[in-house]
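Predict fold of Helix-turn-helix transcriptional regulator; 393 aa.
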Amino acid sequence: MPTPDDSSTGDRIKEHRRRARLSQRELSERIPYSYSLLNQVECGARVASAAFTAAVAAALGIDTALLAGPRHVTDTQHGRLAALVRPIRESLALYDLAPGDRTPARPVAELVLDADRLCQEVRATHLRKAARALPGVMGDLTLAAATAPTTETWRALASTYRTAHDIAVKLGFPDLAVVALDRMGWAAGRASDPCLAAIRQYRRALGHAEAEQGLGRRLVEAGQALVADQTSREGLAVAGQLHLGASAVAARAGDSGAVEQHIAAARELADRVGGEAPEVHWLSFGQMNVTLHEMGAAITMRRYDDALRQARAVKLLPATLTSRRSRYLVDRALVEMETGHLDASLQHLVAARRTAPEQTRYHPRTRETVTGLLHTSRRTSESLVGMATWIGL
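Predicted 3D structure, encoded as C-alpha cells:
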C-alpha cells in the first residue's frame, strides 16, 4: 500500500483537486497563485512551497498534511538525522521526572555558560555539534532546576529548549520543534521571565504562520502583551522581533499594509535599541535584521522584483551571524532565479553552501531553487548537478 511519501506534493494536489471535481483553472481561481504555477507543480516542474501548499489545502478544505510532500532529504539522510535528534527527543520527554539521588555534576554558573554556548553554535550553523552536546546540558540543568531551583537555572533550561526547537526546525523535525516550545514555555513560566515567554510566542507564531494566519497573529499579540511595559534594551529588542514575526505572518496572508506597519514599528524600535543587539537572546535585532525581514516578506508575497532590489542593496556587516548570512544567500539565490538571473542564482547557492553547509543543505528554499534551476537552465552545469546531488535530488 502506498505511503504518503510515495508520491509528490503535485501528485497529491492533483488527486485531491479531482476528488473536489475542480479543474486546474477552477482551483487556480481560488488561490492567490497563477494557473501556470499550479500546472507546473502538478506536473512536477516546480516545487510546491509551504505557502502554496497551505493555500491549496485551504481552497480544498483539507489539512495541509494531506498534501505536504516528502522530506527535503533522502531516506538515508533522514535516518541519520533522526538518530542525531533522538537523544534530544528523549531529554524533552523526561523533563518532569524526579532526579532521584543524583546531584548536578557541575556548578550552575558553568551550565548557564554551556546553554549560551549552544545558542552560539546554532547561530554559527554547527548543528550536529550542538545537537550532540545539547542532551547532556539539558539533563544537567533539569537536575539542577529540580534540586536547587533558581531563576538563573530556569532561564538557562528554557534556553536549551529554545536551542532544541531551533535545531529541530533547521533539520526538518516540526513535531519535535512543537514539543521543545512547550517545554520552553514551561521553564520560562518558572523563571517568571516575560521576555523568554514572548520569544516563545514569536517562535510559535512563525510555526503557525503558513496555514493558520489568524492563529499566528494571535500568538504574536500574546507575545507583545508580555513585553508591553518593558523599557529595557532587552525588552525593546524582543518587542521589535515580535513586530518582525508579525510582518512574516502578514506576508503569508498577503497583507502588504500590515507588513509595512510592522516593519516600520520594528525600525523605530531598532533606532531605540541602538545598533545590532546580538547579546539579547541571540536575536541580533537591529536595522539589518529589519531589512532582511522586509526582503523576506517581499519574497513571501512573490514580489520578486522588489525583493531583488532590496537584496542587491543589502551590505551584510562583518559581524553578521553565519546563520543569517547563509539564509540571506539562499533567499538571494531564489530571487535571482525567479527573476531570470540563473548564473547569479547558482553562485549564491554555492556561496551559501560554503558559508553554512548544514543549514543550506536542509533548507527547503535551497531545494526549491535548485529544482527551478534544473527546469529553466538551457544547459545543466557540473556545479548545478553537484548541488542537486548534494541535497538529494
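Confidence is low (pLDDT under 50) at residues 1-6.
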